[in-house]
Amino acid sequence: MLRRCLLAVLNSGSDSDDAREVLDHFRDFEVGFIQQDQGLKISLSNAPGRAFVDGKMIRGTRELLFAVLRDVVYTRNEVIDSGRFDLQNGAGITDAVFHIARNAGLLRRDGDVRLVVCWGGHAIGREEYEYSKQVGYELGLRELNVCTGCGPGAMKGPMKGATIGHAKQRIRNGRYIGITEPGIIAAESPNPIVNSLVIMPDIEKRLEAFVRVGHGIVVFPGGVGTAEEILYLLGILLHPENRNQPLPMIMTGPASAEPYFRQIDEFVAATLGKEAQSRYSIIVGDPREVARQARASMADVQKFRKKHGDAFYFNWRLVIPQEYQLPFVATHSSMAALNVDESLPAHELAAVLRRVFSGIVSGNVREDTIEQIEKHGPFTIHGSARVMALLDKLLAAFVEQRRMKISGAGYQPCYRVS
Length: 418
Known about the structure:
The protein is of the alpha/beta class. It has helices at 2-10, 19-25, 59-80, 90-103, 126-141, 157-168, 182-185, 203-213, 224-237, 258-271, 274-277, 287-308, 332-337, 346-365, 367-376, 385-400, and strands spanning 30-36, 39-45, 52-53, 56-57, 115-119, 145-148, 176-180, 196-199, 216-219, 249-253, 281-284, 339-340, 379-383, 415-417. The chain folds into 2 domains: 2-78, MoCo carrier protein-like (MCP/YpsA-like, 2-Layer Sandwich); 109-418, Rossmann fold. The chain has 16 helices and 14 strands. The strands form 4 sheets. It has a 7-stranded parallel sheet with strand order 8-7-6-5-9-10-11, sandwiched between helices. A 3-stranded parallel sheet has the order 12-13-14. A two-stranded antiparallel ribbon has the order 1-2. Helix 4 packs across helix 8 (203-213) and helix 10 runs antiparallel to helix 16 (385-400). The longest helix is centred in the N-terminal third of the chain and has 22 residues, at 59-80. It is globular.
């Protein structure tokens, strides 16, 4: 796992989203350690040349390599093996997320409420990428910091734009936070703008970190991974104890992305209802208005946190049910066991749908899951006929719009809707 994560950082800037292709291309890459009086020195052999300039490693790459080693070692020794955290209990999981984030220097008691989490796909076209960059620029001009999944596409664009906005405002300590996890990092290598990288041990802790540290969410066009994130957040906000919790969510893209957001909106309305629709706004083709609304919403978040004595840097009051926290491992049996039953309460249905999309993401990018599918065939997804028809239509639209993968001649679905 450590070798895979280090290789992903060194391979930053690659156009491939096929983890096995990357690992095979650099199969001679080796990692070693040299013990010194001051600590450990990492020894790298046959590393990707893109990580060096005139024979010297790029400084940002060195920092991200340290972040990988720090998080992998800390998570294994202090969280998983220490026995200090009950990782089968919701409170214990939240405590673990907090400690990993704090150890990574992610939590700062600076009294600021200005971190915008940007979600979106890595396999997006040039027009959508440029739009995400323009939104990032407008956010940077308003002195807002950016957090993404750290990869390419809609995860890189907002950071790239924000650097220009921050430069114009003479902000020298802009934060470009990337939160990832070991299973997908090889397919979505950290982009070189990230200056604060955190590796959570699994998808669920990664998603929890996003909503605990962020003060607002901006969603760009994407595929199943973005749909998973949307359902995760909506499911949490629909929980009765979170009804008054301000966590603004804006979906946005260029004018050409309007059909995409209409499909998402129709799916949410048909499955989760009008209350779920009320928890987000859709702004098409107006980066400035997106940034204005994101900035304005920070005042509501700050007021709520002050009123309830909650930290600005970590949202402790947000209630996240255990079904959103316990890791879901996508296998043929676990995917077949998911029953998408429309009679479930909205926040519980969202949890099941989130796992469906999580399994498809895993089948698209994780090499171990891809090997399962090659051996046993596609996953089968079961559920009520009406919801399955809506799901099949949405997934077909993602495939048609080439939102599933970058690599390969054509997308071969890793799922079958039943």
